[in-house]
Specification:
By secondary structure, this protein is α/β, with parallel strands linked by helices. 46% of the residues lie in helices and 13% in strands. The strands form three sheets. A six-stranded parallel sheet has the order 1-12-11-10-13-14, sandwiched between helices. It has a four-stranded parallel sheet with strand order 3-2-4-5, sandwiched between helices.
């Protein structure tokens, strides 16, 4: 079967899948404890991103803005950064790190962020001698790349600025990539079962914040400055996303000789097997029977569903690249046919991704992979009937395509705002594979019932 990678033919974007680089940097920033990202740009560059986070997590996050106006285009925005940092330090006594995230406007006018930081650091020493607040420049011009690029730039910038050689630790760095808190919980579960001490970069599990008796409830990241600094002393690094954190793992290898493995995102059985083997290889810890049992349960769930309900069902997938590739590999494990994969930015390195060859070798269908794509690529193919789609996998921005064309859709990725609590459930690991298979099945069952399409089968399987 063919596996064709192609660039979107149109120049414009209709219904984009991704947002811009600063959004990804802000997501990385809120994953760090005692951190408030400062977006150096217009107010909307933080406001609309905060809205996306609030929609997805139903939680609030502190993100600041230098709130540039027209005068900055002429005189520069350095003064706004100085005022913003001073305000943040004065107002938040717990604050320890401020990533300063550029935008298209500040990159275009040419603000010297590194120079501004040197000047502001001197002012901090003079005005707040008792405070140690790290300022980190993160360059995210939003006229290129995407939120995927921005996340990768942010985690790389923080590692480069803070990683420091010290005494060797027994920890294993895990660069999670842009995953949900439920995925972080699953990573921690796997490490715990293998008795491995993990340094989670970045730990967003605490985004699932309780409302306590004192009425306090605030979501926060749980990776500390010390965790980031200690990444240089780890026994190894595993990056779960090639496009969201692998550069940071590579830097640690080149700068501090920390062994690194860039593993396929552990979605599905085979990719999770690879993840566990990589952990075992770096730590010399055996894979415990408990995880073998979890693997068996996931396979059992898939076997119950694959041949009767999944075989020959055609699937369109869109979202962040590592997620899309992982979901496509999972589909092939389940006898689903991933006929269309949409990657939403201009990263030409997708052409060199080794997963393309693997997909082609294992494909049970002809497959189109479109990069620099938008959701119009999906809708137009459905309208023109150039592909048949039985299922859509992707985030909530594709919901109207699913509704208008009466196609069942499983929400996965970011943002998912039209279903409750999906971010609490993993898609990675054996538990994630089990959840994905059963969620896909239940979505198809509901569609069969609503359409009266052979719904009697559900009575007898």
């Amino acid at each position: 079967m063919s596996c064709e990678l192609m660039l979107k033919e149109r120049t414009g974007i209709i219904n984009p899948m991704y947002t811009c680089q600063p959004a990804g940097a802000q997501y990385a920033g809120i994953g760090v404890k005692d951190c408030i990202p400062l977006v150096h740009g217009g107010q909307g560059c933080s406001m609309f991103v905060r809205l996306l986070f609030a929609q997805h997590f139903k939680e609030n996050f502190d993100i600041a803005s230098s709130s540039l106006h027209e005068s900055a285009a002429v005189f520069g925005g350095a003064v706004r950064v100085e005022e913003a940092v001073e305000t943040l330090i004065a107002r938040y006594p717990h604050l320890r790190i401020i990533p300063i995230i550029t935008t298209c406007s500040t990159e275009t006018i040419g603000d010297d962020i590194e120079g501004i930081i040197r000047k502001v650091n001197q002012k901090i020493k003079e005005n707040h001698p008792d405070r140690d607040v790290k300022l980190i420049a993160i360059h995210t011009p939003s006229y290129s790349g995407s939120m995927v690029t921005g996340y990768d730039n942010a985690i790389s910038a923080m590692i480069k600025a803070l990683a420091k050689k010290g005494d060797p630790s027994e920890k294993l760095n895990i660069f999670t990539g842009w995953v949900n808190p439920g995925d972080v919980s699953e990573i921690k579960h796997i490490l715990s079962e293998m008795q491995v001490d993990g340094n989670i970069l970045l730990d967003t599990e605490t985004f699932d914040s309780p409302i306590m008796p004192d009425k306090s409830a605030f979501a926060y990241g749980n990776t500390t400055i010390e965790d980031i600094a200690d990444s240089a002393n780890a026994l190894g690094s595993i990056a779960l996303s090639r496009y969201e954190g692998a550069n940071a793992a590579t830097f640690l290898k080149e700068k501090f000789d920390v062994p690194s493995i860039i593993t396929p995102t552990p979605i599905g059985i085979n990719n999770t097997d690879i993840f566990l083997k990589n952990i075992s290889e770096l730590t010399e810890k055996p894979i415990p029977e408990s995880l073998v049992i979890e693997r068996g349960k996931a396979i059992d769930s898939i076997v119950d569903l694959a041949h009767m309900f999944f075989a020959n069902k055609k699937v369109a997938i869109f979202g962040n690249p590592d997620l899309v590739f992982g979901l496509a590999q999972f589909c092939l494990e389940c006898e689903l046919e991933p006929v269309l994969l949409l990657l939403g930015d201009d990263n030409s390195s997708y052409k060199k991704d080794l997963r393309l060859k693997e997909l082609e070798e294992k494909a049970n269908c002809d497959m189109q992979i479109i990069w620099n794509a938008d959701l119009w690529e999906l809708e137009s193919r459905i309208k023109n009937k150039t592909i048949d789609v039985d299922l859509i996998l992707g985030h909530s921005k594709g919901r109207y395509i699913a509704i208008d064309h009466n196609i069942p859709m499983v929400r996965v990725g970011f943002p998912t705002f039209d279903r409750a609590g999906l971010w609490k459930y993993p898609v990675i690991g054996y538990k994630g594979a089990e959840w994905l298979a059963e969620t896909i099945a239940n979505t198809l069952f509901a569609s069969m019932e609503s359409k009266h399409d052979r719904e009697w089968i559900i009575n007898v399987w």
